[in-house]
Write a structure and sequence with these properties.
Strand content: 5-15%
Oligomer: single chain
Largest sheet: 7 strands, mixed
Number of domains: 3
Strand order of the largest sheet: 2-8-7-6-5-3-4
Radius of gyration: 25 Å
């Protein structure tokens, strides 16, 4: 607990005058901040001044922040080959310009439709783009990130099917996403089973043995955590024959080349939207994307923006089916989500509008071709191999002769960031110890050049 004098320092940063502060104190029945704090036990108070560093001039502060920023992993002075769920894709400058406008930059979730038509329209356009991207009928606007999005999709599947006994997650799903699902279901009666995928891909016969009559859904990732492409259509057939739903986590960039989740048989599609014009920025904030079939959307969490006409016949927008949400339904809501990633959803909307279908295809093709070139070059290093045999999109698992830690350390010393190593994830313990300690992920996006790839190979050689 801060002492009174320290609290006075902090209060001075608020946009209130001393007279206004005194009026607030009088309104609650005290004459000073000291009187207000008397109710707090002495042992919880900090009886000394806060030790602030000396004040900096504006130019000194700017220089200090620039020095600190240059230490960021993924800063412009370093070359990023890291994968596992967040990627260094190119962001057109127009994305920053549009989303930096004041009417967007500070916009909150709109409840008053008559005062928020521009924001509502932006979210409506986002939903429309996400349905095109996923190949499904309805998308929301929006979720916190891809991990919590998968957990929300699992809860949605339980509500839709009425099955509470079991959820099956493929071992080739990002282990951090799997852990998010486990956390969400900790106090629920639903059992979470992780299907080992030692080959790097989901085995159909093993999947069949994991699904019973009380399985609500099966969660897969395509492209998966190891970069590989799953046999989604065959998986969907197995899942649907047993009355469960298929939840598919996908890379939104990949649909520039690959079939969309809806076209592959997914019932609910979820994605991390970071690739769509959102910088890496220390791991967040990011953007969760969720779309589903028409017959499931009443059980969907989050905002749904609708389009209608006003009494004059003019096009307008509104919040649709609000009775599903916590500000009306309270404890009976579909989810406790009470906001959306509006600014990040807008970035994704601007990004996709700029690229269009052809631009998205080019980004996907460049990423795929460069990743395969990198894999072919790395295979030429003695003692190195690509671990999982099968098609992949833009990332792959590399087995390095001296261990994953050595590869990451040598690359970092030369200005390259690669990884993460598989041993970092405790819930991949069904993989052999050798694979966990000697294998790491390498991802290649359209930003990487042939020279950068060749230089990384030379460092690891």
């Amino acid at each position: 607990m801060l002492g009174c004098s320290s609290l006075r320092i902090l209060v001075s940063y608020l946009f209130t005058t001393p007279d206004e502060q005194q009026q607030m104190l009088e309104r609650i029945g005290v004459d000073s901040i000291e009187s207000l704090l008397k109710q707090i036990p002495q042992e919880l108070q900090l009886h000394r001044e806060l030790r602030f560093p000396p004040a900096l001039t504006e130019i000194e502060l700017d220089q200090h922040l620039r020095r600190r920023a240059s230490q960021n992993i993924g800063a412009s002075s370093r070359i990023c080959f890291m994968g596992g769920g967040a990627y260094d894709h190119f962001i057109p400058s127009v994305v920053d310009e549009v989303t930096g406008r004041g009417e967007f930059y500070t916009a909150y979730t709109p409840y008053q439709a008559e005062a928020s038509q521009g924001t509502l329209q932006a979210f409506f356009e986002f939903q429309s783009l996400m349905t095109e991207l996923s190949g499904l009928d309805v998308a929301n606007a929006s979720l916190y990130d891809g991990g919590s999005g998968v957990a929300e999709a699992v809860l949605m599947a339980i509500r839709c099917t009425g099955r509470t006994g079991r959820v099956v997650i493929a071992g080739s799903v990002n282990p951090e996403i799997s852990q998010s699902v486990v956390t969400y279901l900790t106090d629920q009666p639903t059992e979470v089973l992780v299907l080992p995928t030692r080959s790097g891909f989901v085995g159909l016969s093993a999947l069949e043995s994991f699904i019973d009559e009380q399985t609500a859904c099966v969660v897969i990732q395509h492209p998966n955590f190891f970069g590989g492409l799953e046999a989604v259509e065959q998986i969907a057939q197995v899942v649907h024959e047993r009355g469960a739903l298929l939840v598919m986590s996908f890379d939104p960039i990949s649909v520039g080349l690959l079939k969309r989740p809806g076209d592959l048989g997914a019932d609910i599609a979820v994605a991390e939207g970071q690739s769509l014009g959102i910088p890496l920025q220390f791991g967040g904030p990011y953007l969760g994307i969720l779309a589903c079939r028409q017959d499931l959307f009443r059980k969907m969490p989050g905002r749904l923006i609708g389009q209608t006409v006003d009494r004059h016949g003019h096009r307008c927008f509104f919040l649709n089916l609000q009775a599903r949400e916590q500000h009306i339904r309270r404890a009976g809501a579909m989810s406790n989500i009470c906001t959306n990633q509006g600014l990040l959803a807008l970035r994704a909307t601007v990004y996709l509008s700029l690229l269009g279908p052809e631009g998205l295809k080019q980004v996907a093709e460049l990423s795929c071709r460069k990743a395969h070139y990198a894999a072919d070059r790395l295979r030429q290093i003695e003692g190195c191999e690509i671990v999982f045999n099968g098609p992949f999109f833009k990332e792959f698992v590399l087995h390095y002769r001296d261990g994953a830690d050595a590869a990451i350390r040598r690359a970092a010393a030369a200005g390259f960031d690669i990884g993460p190593k598989l041993g970092r994830f405790s819930n991949l313990n069904w993989l052999s110890r050798e694979i966990q300690e000697q294998c790491l992920i390498v991802a290649v996006t359209e930003c990487r050049t042939k020279n950068e790839i060749d230089d990384l190979v030379a460092v690891l050689s």
